[in-house]
Amino acid sequence: MSNPVSNAVSNPVSSSPSNAPHEGRKPRLLVQKYGGTSVGTIERIRAVAQRVASARAAGFDVVVVASAMSGETNRLIALGQQLSKRPDPREMDALVATGEQVSVALLAIALHDLGVPARSLTGFQVKLRTDSAFMKARIRGIDAEQLIETARQGVVPIVAGFQGVDDEGNTTTLGRGGSDTTAVAIAAALGQGVACEIYTDVDGVYTADPNVCPNARKVRRISYEEMLELASLGAKVLQIRSVELAMKYAVPVHVRTSFSDAEGTWVVNEDESLESVVVAGVTSDKNEAKVTIRRVEDKPGRAAGLFEALADARISVDMIIQNPSADGSTDMTFTVSKNELDRAREIASKVFASHEIFVREDVVKVSIVGLGMRSHAGVAAKMFRLLADEGINIEAITTSEIKVSCLVAAKYHELAVRALHDGFGLGA
Amino acid sequence: MSNPVSNAVSNPVSSSPSNAPHEGRKPRLLVQKYGGTSVGTIERIRAVAQRVASARAAGFDVVVVASAMSGETNRLIALGQQLSKRPDPREMDALVATGEQVSVALLAIALHDLGVPARSLTGFQVKLRTDSAFMKARIRGIDAEQLIETARQGVVPIVAGFQGVDDEGNTTTLGRGGSDTTAVAIAAALGQGVACEIYTDVDGVYTADPNVCPNARKVRRISYEEMLELASLGAKVLQIRSVELAMKYAVPVHVRTSFSDAEGTWVVNEDESLESVVVAGVTSDKNEAKVTIRRVEDKPGRAAGLFEALADARISVDMIIQNPSADGSTDMTFTVSKNELDRAREIASKVFASHEIFVREDVVKVSIVGLGMRSHAGVAAKMFRLLADEGINIEAITTSEIKVSCLVAAKYHELAVRALHDGFGLGA
Fold it and tell me: Is the pTM of this model over 0.90?
């Protein structure tokens, strides 16, 4: 137990009520972020208010961040899209930002009704400054003093997530999942070691998708780095930018559910992640497609020409494989997101006008992630062996310091994940 | 035609498109306010955007004020009330203000889609400063410069009605119908003679309720004073505070409908209201109840004691009648709003503990309103005669300079209104 802060806040709700706040000692600060399903109905909002009140009773000064009620953001976007095929981005931000303003006001009303003073705050009011990139703005700063002063007066600040204000006073939004980023940024601004609880519709991070691996285990602690790899690979528990921000400012993040008091998963610094296993988790991504260009002349500049053209078109390429053959030609293979496949194929056809181009969509990328593999040799080899033992052919491979990914036929999805999960001893 | 401004804007939509703006001469300013039904659906919002675009094409710089989509304010209030029997007023304002923020963003999107630059503005952004009386705030000032500058750049400012911001940066609302007041206040701030079009679900002010008098006529022009009496008597076309504000700053107000291009009713200064008839309209109010205290000793201070107690309880008394009889006692009668009847009766029972108290709810107040009656004797007498001719007994009477009201049994409601409407020659 090397992190006193995260231990201290590990379960505020179940802490003894004798730790009443404002009794001589300085209350500890805690940021709680509630996602759309946590505030999805009047009953859920009431339950969240009760949870906030309990954390206060347990000795915490709480700053709350809330998302829009589930479904509300999509409803607002649909209204805007009915009026225009390309709705003005500034106005879309003004429109969708109201979703969070509704939920924070409702949450404040619910807290008042429990006798807990609370104050809803929009992005404007909390002076969460961003750049002017509407629909994907980046945070520049937050008026932490106001939040600390409000909390010190015994009033719970309830901050609308996902939104900010630019230098011209326009409302901006941070993009999908931006409320996580708001919460982590606030925790970072409130001071060293302030923890951030992220209440979401899953109760933590698992060693694999429990729908695929029934024996998947909830991870107690995971490092920021591992979480980044898992998040970018499709384990959509936390928005990736919020993890980057948490890592940058060493904000301990507790991913949990508001539907129970169970502990979730702590996302923390590497040296605090107890479970320094070789592989932390297995994940998969069905959203990639493979493009192969046959028999390209194997000479300098051919690959560069292709990938420059793809980069110019802002198409992200994930895996790249090039296998020179004896006759001086090579097959060039790369993967892209399925929704960029058509554009990628078009570009490849231009660059290699006289070559055969094959695409394949029925593939899945399975990956193992873990800090431990930096110091353990043979992890990749073991992965390839585990897949081979099941008769699964590997179509492409990429590796990073803490991740190995293999592209396999989509029909092997569940089989591959289970084989790796069990093979690396992750089962409960 | 004594008012060049209101003539100029009398029908911007149907004006010749050759009056294009920004061609050498200074465009005229016009405020258009669209009510909830005018922006009630995506199709209606599109129609409103078209109307704004037409006004611009006709040579106007338009500032738009919009209400929430119809039903939206009630939906939001219901959410808040589900969470608390007495929801916090600051948070209710933060909650309901989102309704207008949605409609102004949608309207801006629709205008952009027509190629018309537009910018939605919240109460915060337009710096519409108010006091801190949540749910019934009063306007203190508006940043007109910003609006004029925005319009001058060819961008249509679309201001969220009904909302403002107090000195502490809290969102406030102006109370029901407050968007009318926002629009008139903006027109006043924009400068002398700037007209304000109020688009509502009725197409103007009528000489009587057309549901009661099928031959009721739309009034072309009416004075602020007459409109105030009509509004306070229940002809709910314009919010009363907006009429007071229009009178104070001489803002010409054009009440009309967004469902057609028909002229509505101009509310203007007395000397501009062409139709200086004796009686401008007949109106009625079913929301009053009568309280009678029998056989009160007829001595000084008895009435004062009662009405002071009612005033202390903030109960508004409308009509008061006291008829001394020969035996030294008097019957004391007054009327109050039906929703304050129980409290009024209770107070009367305390002040006159040993007296009989009667209440009557099946009454209606019918009134005639007109500037002309200041210079015409016998108008009240004629009203009483017209009612008597129909066999209608008068239960109470009040008069002001430009209004005479009679309380009659509720069953005579339609009969009384029709008799007065025809008797004063108001029919079409």
Answer: no
